[in-house]
Amino acid sequence: MEVINHIEIRDGRGYICGTNKKAEMVARMYVGTDYTIEEVMEQYDLSAAEVHAAIAYYYDNQEALDAKHEAVISEIRENAMTLEKFKAKIAARQANEDTST
């Protein structure tokens, strides 16, 4: 009996075998959204088995993947340029230009 594995681990991350597509990314398009398996297959040009394997990988590692994902989202939010920060940056730039002329 031949066993086919659609997920390979590289540098601690799961990838669809033979591609550079991260299993987590593929799974997140389906999990918690209204996208169908068929839509995910079409988006990533994968077979149903590959998409299901990515989803299984996600659920097998959900706690760790979600924790990493939340940490990245938190970092993005912390470093994001808000409208207020942007206005302050422009005002500071204009003030510097005014004082240098």
Give a brief description.
Helix content is 64%, strand content 8%.
Would you give an account of this structure?
Helix content is 64%, strand content 8%. The protein has 101 residues and is mainly α. A hairpin with a 2-residue loop joins strand 1 (7-10) and strand 2 (13-16). Helix 1 (23-30) crosses helix 3 (48-60) and helix 2 crosses helix 3 (48-60). The N and C termini lie far apart (79 Å).
The secondary structure category is mainly alpha
Strand order of the largest sheet: 1-2
Number of helices: 5
Count of beta strands:
2
From the alpha-carbon coordinates, what is the Rg to the nearest angstrom? Answer: 21 Å
The major beta sheet can be summarized as: 2 strands, antiparallel
Order of helices and strands: EEHHHHH
Distance between the termini: 79 Å
- Structurally, the number of domains stands at 1
Principal-axis shape: elongated
Overview features:
64% helix; 2 strands; 5 helices; 101 residues; elongated
Write the layout of secondary structure elements.
Elements: E1 7-10, E2 13-16, H1 23-30, H2 37-44, H3 48-60, H4 62-79, H5 83-100
Antiparallel strand pairs: 1-2
